[in-house]
Amino acid sequence: MAGTRRGAEFVWRGGELTAAVRAAALEGLRAAAELIGDASDRRIPVESGDLRESREDDVDEGSLTVDITYGGRGGLPQAYAIRQHEDLELQHPSGGQAKFLEQALETNKNDVFEMIADDIRQAIDAGGDL
Fold first, then answer.
1. What is the per-residue pLDDT for 13?
2. Buried b (16+ CB within 10 A) or exposed e, 28-55
3. Residue 122 contacts residue 24 (beta carbons within 8 Å)
4. What total number of domains does the chain contain?
5. How far does CA 128 lie from the centroid of its chain?
6. Count of CB atoms within 10 A of residue 114's CB?
7. 103 near 97, Cβ under 8 Å?
8. What is the pLDDT of residues 27-51, one digit of tens each?
9. Sign of the four-CA dihedral 69, 52, 42, 38
10. Alpha-carbon distance 37 to 39, whole Å?
11. Residue 61 in contact with residue 75, Cβ under 8 Å?
């Protein structure tokens, strides 16, 4: 949409800016998933390493959401991953802790919000280049 106001021309490119902001949000979500997943991996109970290796990060572009899951890959049942995460009574003599994913998010949530916000800010600041 183009227009003129008091002798100045302008072109509305809101759709392009919206697309750039959405792409930036996706990039921020991918970086956030990696940050949280890596922090979770450092807390995960260790027996064989299979639980850590079963991690999957899935960014849904349509809903702008992230799922970080363990289990269900490499033959490791998700029920095992859930028990390791939820059962506060389990002992982990080789290291790690229950609530490994939850604690990783809680500890890093401010960094996650800032990462995503920074990516979006950069897209908006670059909007003059569209």
1. 80
2. bbbbbbebbbebbbebbbeeeebbbebb
3. yes
4. 1
5. 28
6. 13
7. yes
8. 999 999 999 999 999 999 988 888 9
9. negative
10. 5
11. no
Amino acid at 102: E
Output the CA angle 17-8-4, nearest 5 degrees: 75
Q: Is 71 within 8 Å of 53 (Cβ atoms)?
A: no
- pLDDT top residue among 112 and 78: 112
Residue 69 near residue 58 (C-beta atoms within 8 A): yes
Matching residue, tokens 């991953």: 81
pTM of the model: 0.83
The residue range of the domain holding 43 is 2-129
**Tokens of residue 11, six digits:** 């072109």
